[in-house]
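MODEL INPUT / OUTPUT PAIR
PAIR INDEX: 1
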Amino acid sequence: MKVFLKLKEKPDLRHPVLVGGVADSGYVANLALDHFVKELKGKLFGEIYSYGFPPHIMIQSDGTAGLQKANLYFHRSPDRKTDLLILGGDTQPSEPQAAYQIASEVLQLAKGMGIKKVYTIGAHVTGTAVEDPKIYATATDPNLVKKIADYGFHVMSQGNVTWMNGLLFGLAKLRGMDGCFLSAETSGYSVDAKAARGVLVALTKVLGITMDTTRLDERAKEIERLNHTIDANQRDPAQETESRSPPELYR
């Protein structure tokens, strides 16, 4: 199964770290990575296409349409102590082989850029509503597990991390890189900006980055209001409803 890596440039990064998050339950990784990239003003430098992505054409807000893809960004830190390579995507591959191949391509690129540590983020699905999401984490190295425990995160002792958000940090170990997965509790039933904020704060804490989360806080309140409206309408069958487009995930 073919994977096409289209690079506009190959940035020169100093002491870089790879951060990745692809579509998952509650859109936790999507929302967090989108905010992360926008706040850092990450520069898009690459796109990943694959026959393994779902056969859908995505229509954009400006009326244009394009193939499903994953995006690569980079960010140079002001002090140049830790630059970032960032992978984001709005969809998971539909085939396991494609997931392995895409993860391998990204890690090969990362290895060539001198990356030694890989972080991925995502959802920790509980199946029930969560008011204050806890952060759960796991890592491929015992020393890294100890470090994430020191941050106050709950160390995962069972379960699994699926698809790209799991393979990316799991396969990193085979290439001599440390891998870590950070996740926030979510019901998994609806878009969860609160969980996205939680995992974003955890990620920036680990990376030593200060980040404004105001837009994500506002998004969480908007989604909460929408969910209350939906619940109210479901409880009252006589409530008049109207057809409307789904709310935008990103702004």
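PAIR INDEX: 2
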Amino acid sequence: MTERSNETLRKDACQTAGLTMSRSRIEAARNYSVVNLWDRLGFGAVKDGGLVRSPWREDATASLQVGGGKNIVFDHGTKESLDTIALVQKVRACGFVEAVGFIVNGDGPTEVPSLAPKSFAQRAVETARRQFAELKASGNLGIETGTEANGAAKSNKWTPDQALAALRGGHERLLASTEAMTLLTAYGLERRTIECAPLALQRDAVLYTDSLEDPTVIKSKSVRRGPDGKRAGWFAYGNPALWWPCGKPRAGAEIVLTGGEEKCLLCIQEGIAACTTLNGEGTVDSEWAREIAALGPDRVTIWMDNDQTGRDSSEKWAAALWLAGVRDVRIIQWA
């Protein structure tokens, strides 16, 4: 395995994703008058520091302040603060790159669409609606949605009570299952690692969760592999998120972003802080990149599979992390 320099990675990743944006353009977008931007976004003219009703919630007292000292929009009711770029992202449901392009260049994006700016649910719904419209127009209503829409449809299948019931005693069942333990140890995981991980067994599937007692997310993956050699997986409870099986690391720690839960646990087994995306390598979300960047890591190393999906995802994650503020990002490449 080799590592490319950070500067080479940054250029390659940004070129791959079509992100050719200078810091000066970002600063220009951040310094753009939020009062003028508010008007451009269709909310109407407002004086600097003026109070208006929030367009995102019930607001009888006009508690949203536009400008006034700081070049931000501040909601006195929810304490949410938005700079110009974040404001455009919220209003237009777009990503960082598109937001900067909108502010600097005028109406409409002039750069590539963002990597994955919207929430999983938003993207799934929009994908499904677009495909339905296309199929309806063509007269073919045999709807076949994409993997994101399918994943979202399965999300939250269990109720909270059902989720707790599935996990109850599941960790002990996992440790007692020869088949499940053989599967996990084949990845290189030691029993001590599995004993400490938030994993459970329910029928013929391993459950990956953030907490065995108070879960917010559960992903289910079959113990046995299908004819294609892959394990079937779906979201049993909660929404896709970054998985930190041992909690988030201390500020400034080096983090490894892996493609797969077992890779993540292998890193932790070696004493390395790690996280993974529970909905597979193909999804790159700028919100998750900002979640990692907020920890102030010294370095983020990306470890995905050595296939086209893994390579594409690595480049996109690198660009997303760079734009989120991580300045030392590396991709593990397989020789």
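PAIR 2 NOTE: The longest strand covers residues 218-225.
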